[in-house]
Amino acid sequence: MNIGIDLGTTNTLVAFVDEFGNVKKLDFSNGKSDNRCLLPSCIAYDGEKDAILVGQAALDFVQNNPIGARRFIRDSKYSMGDDGKVWNIGRRSFDAEGVAVEILKEVMRELKSRFPEEKEFTAFVTVPARFETQEPRLATKSALKKAGFLPANENNTLTDEPIAAAIAYSKELQDAANVLVVDFGGGTFDLSLLKSSMVGQAVSAERLEPIAWGGDKQLGGNDVDKVLFEIIADKVYADTGLDIRIDLSNSQALMKCRPEVLSAALTVRNYVQSSDGIKSKLFSRRNPEETVYISELFDDYTLKMTISAELYRQKMQPLADKMRKSIDDMYNSFSVSPEKTDKVLVVGGMAHELCLIDMLTEIFGAETLVIPDDSLYLVARGAAICNSRFKVHVDNKAYSSIAVVVAAPDGRSRTLDVIVSEGMTISDDFSVCRKYMPNADNAKYLQLSFIEYKGKFDSSKSNAFYEVELELNRPMKRNKQIITINYVFNEDKLFIINAQQIDGTVTQFSVRL
Q1: Cα–chain-centroid distance for residue 484?
Q2: Nearest Cα to 172, choosing from 328, 338, 347, 295?
């Protein structure tokens, strides 16, 4: 069965293709109580049962047992691929990949429960375009396999979230239009400027060519939640003198926190993160304000306040400035004029956020903006389409340049061999073979440095200035000897490099395109 998974920072969404070719959303028995299509991307450890809880069960556990916040992990996607980031909850330890495995296992359990006749599930999973290095992409792919999913294709299991959204909405895109996809999700702010054009006469067959990309991998709906939390916390502090602004991801801070303060902080956070609560009302164009009412936040205190659009915009200004800078930087970096943008497709959980819509309207005009009713689900839908009747071809673009620096025997002068240039279109069957040897008969060694860089290479700067992926420094014997390097392209947008050394051994590494 063909599955598409949007493994989000805050929530995970899944789409599947039924026997009639229709793309449908998957409801979760453990999904959010106000929207079963959303599986909260979090886990908790129940010490009494020695069990890992996932999704709404984990949220309920923490809400009903505030001390459980010390055994709770969320927003782990920020650390995907970082082996050094480990959470200890109860008797268990998890890195971000381990958390993703538990979430994906919950997806698998739901699928098996709903479709018991299916023997296996192939999955396409989306990742932020801002995953610019290979580690988080490889960790995501590894988690998918550990959860029991079959990859859609050994070399083609991942796709960027903005591109998946564009694929899901491809029929509505104009012929040869420049489409900016703005994906404002729970944890990342992704931008992809795509050129859409028809292939032949088939209406459903299109070609998407990335012509610019950018964003901020540390900006998302969680930051909006923090702004709203701060606004409410200020009111609570003014009324009671109690400060509920604590870092709920810091176990040491939680251990020192008074139980009633921790309970109030969790209540406010859950209120802010409710999918049909404060944000849906505040981001409404008809009535952009929200009255916050929480009965007995403390034993003798009931919170009641109104958050206006004016107050919200004021507090959001620093984040709005970051969004504007990301957009300006992208267009400036690729020397593209915003006036060349024909449509702006806004997707993700924060698609209706006030400051974002204000800014996009100011830059591109209201008539250019497209915010589909199902903007929250487009990424998962696009992943499912990629995994089944995929008729949209996406040109692969190099996000950076890959080159080899060859040092001369004296170690002072260097030559540069550029393999891939930033912005270059990479075909699916791309392959290159290079052979390197010393340029002097009496050379004592051959030094190769594989570097990744953006912009132009500056020969006056040392290797330390660049992102060095691998260094080979091999001593030479009596005669000149050759090191053979093979470069191939993996459809998961990984550039695989195999370096066959003099003794016949092969060193392999990969970089993100």
Answers
A1: 35
A2: 347
Nearest Cα to 152, choosing from 286, 31, 16? 16
- For 309-454, strand residue ranges (E) read 343-347, 369-370, 392-394, 396-397, 401-407, 414-420, 425-426, 431-436, 445-453
Reply yes or no on whether the pLDDT at 267 is more than 50: yes
Helix-strand-coil percent breakdown of the chain, rounded to 5?
Answer: 30, 35, 35
Mean of the per-residue pLDDT values for the chain? 81
292 touches 307 (CB < 8 A): yes
Q: How far is CA 428 from CA 113, 172, 489, 492, in A?
A: 37, 26, 7, 10
User: Which of residues 183 and 465 earns the better pLDDT score?
Assistant: 183
In the predicted model, is pLDDT for residue 56 greater than 80?
Answer: yes
**Cα torsion at 151, 153, 158, 163 (round to 10°)?**
-130
User: Which CA distances in Å does 182 have to 41, 146, 195, 330, 331?
Assistant: 22, 31, 14, 12, 13
Contacts of 406 (CB under 8 A, 6+ apart): 414, 415, 416, 417, 436, 446, 447, 448
55 C-beta neighbours (distance < 10 Å), count: 26
